[in-house]
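Section 3.1 - Work completed
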Amino acid sequence: MVNLIEVKRYYVNDYMALSVITVDGLAFFGLEPGKDKMICDGMYKLGLRKEGGKHNQYKKKFPQYHEGMIEVKDVPGKKYILWHIGNYITDTKGCLLVACGVIFPASFGRNENGMILRQSTDGYKKLYEAVIDMFSIGEVFARYTSL
């Protein structure tokens, strides 16, 4: 069985891209690098990365359920694109941050610090559980779309 996750980018500027991620009826906010650094729209297979610094960090932080980092596979010109916890664009390191909420401060859209995710750990835990369930029944893909 093939499982599909939607990553719909609703706001993109030079610094950041804000998206809504839908997984099995659940919705989350996503934040990733802006225009020149984000991955291109398209369908990508997801996998579990079971090595590296983030994996080791999350294995200690969430020993009860961490099986590996959610990784976007086979992205042209990029590697090790993970989905993880973070609140600010500076936390992305080229990856996709996941959260339950977003704050639009007064500086929104004017610089790289213009958007803040909130409840990232809670959002990540819920998303991670849903994605792991999907892996247990088949392949998992993410469709990235910029609206």
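Second construct:
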Amino acid sequence: MPILSEGATAPNFTLHSDQGEKVSLSALQDKPLVLFFYPKDDTPGCTIECKEFRDARADFQAKAHVFGISPDDMASHQAFRDKYALTFHCFPTPSIRSPVYSVSGGRRRTAQRASTAPPS
């Protein structure tokens, strides 16, 4: 599967959020989606990035859904969200390896943003 380009239709996925809700991409067709991938909760760089998304909520809220994805577990995401009053869902995944979203995993993880149009 080729790497997803900005503005391209994203393949459907369903994940459980840090609030225990099941979220499917196919149900989010009302506005674009901004996914940002980060390696670990509560680390200096990732915390800055997540706080920037939190602080920009007013800019995003009416225009796009915003979700953070990292390999941390549900408990870690919940504590991270509560500690920094994050205003978006964080999704735990066993691995952030995804060729579609141009994200690699492993010992040294690379996080990149994917901004996608809603599925048609």
